[in-house]
Amino acid sequence: MNIQVNVASRGPLIAIGGAEDKSREAAILKRVVAFSGKKAPVVGVITTASAIPQEVFDGYEEVFSNLGAAEVLDVRIRSRSDAANPDLIAMIERADVIFISGGDQMRLTNILGASPFLKALRARHAEGAVVAGTSAGAACQSSTMVYGGAATDSLRKGAVKMAAGFGFIDGVIIDTHFLERGRFSRLLEVGATNPEFLGVGIGEDAAVLFDGNKILAFGPGHVILVDSSNITHSNVFELNDGEAVTVHDVKMHALVEGYGYSLSDRRVLGPDELGANSLEPKIAYT
Fold this sequence. Notes:
Elements: E1 13-16, H1 27-34, E2 42-46, H2 53-66, E3 71-75, H3 86-93, E4 97-100, H4 105-112, H5 116-127, E5 130-134, H6 136-139, E6 144-148, E7 161-164, E8 172-176, H7 184-193, E9 198-202, E10 207-211, E11 214-218, E12 223-227, E13 233-234, E14 247-248, E15 251-255, E16 260-262, E17 267-269, H8 271-274
């Protein structure tokens, strides 16, 4: 199955596993800014997912300003009516980098889904703007997203809850805080029920760039890929909700910076194949 970023989406798409470094080093966020192709980009921060939007915005305003942003916009959308506010939509229309914070991804999709704001966000991405998100802001990027499921034992039929995401990329399921919160069983259950989805489990202070038909890992942490496309057996269709699932011949990969993955033929790409400049910005626009 050939998985790729939607044709209409041409800007860089970055998913971060959460708890990324916000110090002056800020390796991941520095790359997010660089992908704009501008020396002093305008950054719009969407804090809709968070229950503490001011505190979250203040942290990102400081780090993005330190990284050279010309302006950091507080895109404060807290309701469905806000998502139709022309002033807030205008912020997105002039942002070079659009950053979606963590929190609750169901809050994101409930407030922004089918809204004029989300339409403007997709259009801006199609024009070349960077779209990046961390934690909930990463999980919402796929067409189908995970929004719940116990980390301790999700390998049970129906344990993982899924809903529609924002649809920037098809054919993958993104899970965040992956290693730190022990979420392996969540992507195993997803793979047993939906073998066509590639599970992308992103650890804290780790990120991926979805680059056409490739996933490129970067940052200090790990990216775990769970490929269930060639499973040989599962009992999931025989079970009642809550019963234990068996699944055989799942393939997993652990990636670090410098490594990638081909979505078209499902194989790991090493540094020799990717080259030293694989994470250099490919887009510069005015």
